[in-house]
Structure formats: C-alpha cells, structure tokens
Specification:
The complex is a heterodimer of chains A (230) and B (281).
Chain A lengths: L3 H29 L3 H16 L2 H12 L4 H10 L7 H26 L2 H9 L4 H12 L1 H16 L3 H7 L9 H11 L2 H28 L14
Helix pairs in contact in A: 1-5, 1-8, 2-5, 3-5, 3-9, 5-8, 5-9, 6-7, 8-11, 10-11
Chain B lengths: L1 H23 L16 E8 L3 H14 L3 E8 L1 H9 L6 E3 L3 H5 L24 E5 L2 E5 L21 E4 L5 H12 L3 H6 L3 E4 L2 H9 L5 E5 H7 L2 E5 L9 E6 L6 H12 L1 H10 L5
Parallel strand pairs in B: 1-2, 1-3, 6-7, 6-8
Antiparallel strand pairs in B: 3-10, 4-10, 5-8, 5-9
The chains are: A mainly alpha (230), B alpha/beta (281).
Chain lengths: 230, 281
C-alpha cells in the first residue's frame, strides 16, 4: 500500500501548525491590546477563513500564488519555480484555513487571564516581554494546547483549498483527503475505507492526547499567590 | 371588532374562491396530441464534463421545441456520473464520454469484464453513439515551456502535466493510452510529472491558470477555453473517442428523455456540437 498520502498529510499539517502557532499567538497578543473599533475589524478579517468555504479560499489563493498571481509570478521570476501544484502550496492553504482556530482560542485564553497577575508583574518592575513569557504563556497553556491541537486536526483534514492549489499528483501532492475522493470516484471502496479508518484513528489519537494533557493540568481554582516581596 | 370580523370573512371567502378557481381546472382526459400545452417535465441529464458548453447552447434551442421541458444538467467526469447512477442517483439520461462507463450500466454486457455484477441501469434499446471527439495536447497562453509535441513532455522543460484521472475520467483513460502508445507513460510516472484531475474541465482550468506546463484534453475543451493546441493525439494511439448516450431505467419521464435524445441527433443540435469541434461518432 502506498503510504505517501499519510506522510504528506502529516508533514503539511505539522509545518502549517508550527507557523499558525506563532502567528496565532503573536496576533492574539497584539490585537487584544488594540482599541475596540480596530480590534473588532481585525477580528472579523482574521476570523474570516473560518466561515468561508474552502473552495472560496482556494480560489483566492490560486489568484494570489498561481503563476499569473502577484505573489506567484514574483516567486516564478525569483526562483523559476511555481508554487501551485506542490505541497508547499498546501501548507499555505492549511495555514490560512487553520489560523482562525488558533487565533480565537488563544485570544480567548489571553482575555480570560487574570489581569491582576500582569499588573502585579508590572508593579514589580518586570518588562512586558518577561511578563509575556513567564506569566501569561505558562498561565494560558491549556488554551495554547487546545488551539494547537484544533489547528493540527483541522489541517490534517483540509480538502477543498488544498485540492485546488495542489492538484492530485500521486507520490507528490496526494493527501489523505484527496486520495479518498479519488478512490471514491474510481469506485475503489475497499481502499477508500482503509484511508477513512486511518484518518479516524489519527484524529481519535490526537483528541485523546489533548484530553490527557488537559487532565494533567492542575485546576487553578484558588486565587494565584503573588510572589513574596523583598 | 365587528369590522375586523367582517374583513376577515371577506378575505377568507376571496381566498377560498381563488383556490376553488385553480383546482377547478383539473385536466380532464384530453388526449396528448390535441392539447398544445403539455405537462411540465423535468429532465435530469447526466452529461460528461466536455459537453458543458454545447449542452447549454442546445438548452436554449430546446425550449422552443418543447417549452414544457426543463433541462437540468449535471456535468461531471463520466466515471463520477457512473458511480452516482450506481448509487441510486435520480437521472433520466446519461451522456458518457467513454464506452466503458456506459457498458458498466448496460445489462447486455452483464457477466463481462465491463459489467461483472450485471447492473441494469440503462434502457439498452435506447442506447446510441452520439458524438466523436479528438484528444489534444494544450498549453497555457504563450506556451512558457515551449512544447511542440508529445515527446517534449519527457524533457526537462516540462515539470508538470495535467491529465484526467484514468480510472474515472475517460479523457484521462485516452491520455494514458496515448502516452503508453508513444512510450512516454512510464517515464512520466517515474518522474512524478503527472497530476490527475477529477474531470477534463479541471485539467482545462489548470492549463488556463498556468499551474501546469501542459494538459491533455479534448479538442472541444481547448476550443471552448481558447487554449493553444500544440499536438493532436494520433487516432490509432487510443481507443476511438465515442460518446454513447442512453435513457436510464429509473427515469421519471422516459418518453421525454427519448424525445430529447432524438433532438440531440437532429440537425440543429448537430450544428451546435460541430461548432465546438465534435465530430460524428
């Protein structure tokens, strides 16, 4: 059995999640600090891919990174290579589609975070960067993990946008989702079922892992104690 | 209060009169030939993707011939349509771009390699060969890879070739046959240069967008999309490209379907097909 679709889906989801992780946290942190009007507008724009059909995203992406698109033609001039019809294009598609998941989850976690801890840090003379890395991030671990896992799982299951920008080249750009579609079209139910169960197993394992991680986190019910002064 | 009541009664009476009026004109047993206004009929036509443009034109012609018939076209790859019919889709007509997809539904081929399960989804006595087509190699505007023949596909100037998926798209099957006959199939596969599309229209779209260096499509698709054709597949390098058509067994309106099929073989429809580059079967 050709295992390439599994490897390809995993690597696309992995690389996209890494980018979405940092991008989501970055934007969640800075957008949370903006004034209300601008925050609302940016929120809309950044959450848009969540509610748009993947084919709409695929269409826009094609116009952008396709050989005649603004980014695509620039890349073609610089490197002589096309972005579309490669697995790199899939990474672009998956980043766009999974970004809102990470962004919303992390922003929710940041906004629910007890601001007193941040103020306390500031009164103790700590820099914003220190507060971010040593107070905020550790305190929001659950939200970060949840967002990352959601993004990864969604990225693993992306079909519409990936299919449009990367096509279906066995051994090069085939993912689990495009392979199942292809097998269904051919009428090869037996092999399609196999891939469906593989996908189910991976998704189940991922969500189970999330559950276990969440259970190991101590429930912070009591108010946090401030570090002793002096 | 009285005024409201009387208004409501008046409204109620008017509505019931109108309802009586419309149901009053139930069709008495008038013979079909004598009444010019026939019952509205909806025909679900499953057609190969390459027939999209020509069928849309023919649709406007047919409304003059049979104004009571509403044509609904589902244009996908023939293999996909075959799968949908097998899984119970409601359709009246099947226009396929390949014989295999039709054979799989034809009871006269029961027991053979084409129809091992003995499926019976078409009315075999309505099956005809409707059209012929040609297979061509098309390139994006400006031919960036400088392709002049099929043999150029295995050179380094070509990184990606789009064809239909051979197992579900007849155009892909013909493309595989041609590339095999020309001795290029194994090399292209070994170098992972082939991207398989779900229909010949997707291949056309990929070529138009310039995402691939070339695509193997029908002459009619190249004409409809205004794509440059750099080579035509030799006729003996693939099975004859014939479009069979038939009425389906679970059609709700087999007579109307047969009438439309007859129209498709007539002079008006043939003129439209030929304008796109289709030929006689």
């Amino acid at each position: 059995m050709d295992w390439f679709p599994l490897l390809n889906s995993l690597r696309i989801a992995l690389f996209s999640t890494i980018v979405t992780f940092f991008l989501g946290i970055l934007l969640a942190y800075y957008v949370a600090k903006l004034p209300r009007g601008l925050k609302g507008l940016l929120d809309c724009i950044l959450t848009m891919p969540l509610v748009l059909p993947p084919t709409v995203i695929g269409f826009f992406l094609l116009k952008l990174i396709g050989p005649y698109g603004s980014v695509g033609s620039l890349w073609l001039d610089l490197t002589g290579k096309k972005i579309t019809m490669t697995w790199y294009a899939s990474i672009c598609a998956v980043i766009i589609v999974t970004f809102p998941l990470m962004y919303r989850t992390v922003r929710g976690a940041f906004e629910a975070f007890d601001q007193n801890l941040i103020h306390a840090g500031k009164t103790l003379g700590r820099s914003n960067a220190w507060i971010f890395w040593r107070v905020l991030m550790p305190g929001c671990t659950q939200g970060l993990v949840a967002g990352t896992v959601l993004a990864f799982a969604r990225g693993l299951g992306e079909y519409g946008a990936t299919s449009m920008v990367s096509g279906y080249t066995p051994g090069r750009t085939a993912t689990i989702s495009t392979t199942v579609y292809q097998l269904w079209q051919e009428g090869n139910d037996a092999l399609a079922y196999r891939w469906v169960f593989i996908n189910l197993a991976i998704s189940f394992a991922v969500l189970l892992a999330v559950n276990l991680i969440e259970r190991r986190q101590p429930r912070k019910r009591r108010p946090a104690r401030l570090p002793a002064a002096g | 209060m009285k005024k409201v009541l009387s208004l409501l009664c008046a409204a109620g009476l008017t509505v019931s009169l109108a309802a009586c009026g419309s149901t009053g004109s139930t069709p008495s047993a008038t013979p079909e030939e004598s009444t010019p206004v026939a019952e509205p009929v909806e025909l679900n036509v499953f057609a190969a993707a390459s027939l999209t443009e020509s069928l849309n034109e023919i649709q406007t012609l047919y409304t003059d011939v049979a104004p009571n018939v509403t044509l609904l076209f589902t244009t996908l790859a023939s293999g996909t349509l075959q799968t949908q019919i097998e899984q119970g889709a409601d359709a009246d007509l099947f226009l396929s771009a390949g014989q295999n997809e039709m054979n799989a539904l034809d009871a006269t081929y029961a027991g053979t390699e084409f129809n091992p399960l003995g499926l019976d989804f078409i009315l075999s006595n309505t099956r005809i060969d409707l059209l012929g087509n040609q297979l061509v190699l098309a390139v994006p505007a400006g031919n960036p890879a400088g392709i002049t023949s099929f043999e150029d596909l295995i050179t380094d100037s070509v990184t990606m070739l789009a064809i239909g998926a051979p197992a579900s798209v007849p155009a892909g099957m013909y493309a595989q046959e041609t590339l095999t006959a020309l001795g290029l199939w194994d090399t292209l596969n070994a170098e992972n240069k082939l991207t398989l599309a779900s229909s010949v229209k997707e291949v056309t779209a990929q070529v138009t967008a310039g995402s691939v260096d070339a695509g193997i499509i029908y002459l009619t698709d190249a004409n409809a999309a205004g794509l440059e054709v750099v080579a035509i597949a030799p006729t003996d390098s693939h099975s004859p490209i014939v479009y069979p058509a038939a009425v389906l067994t679970n059609s709700h309106a087999p007579q109307a379907a047969e009438d439309f099929l007859a129209f498709l073989t007539g002079p008006e429809a043939t003129a439209v097909f030929e304008s796109y580059g289709f030929s006689a079967p």
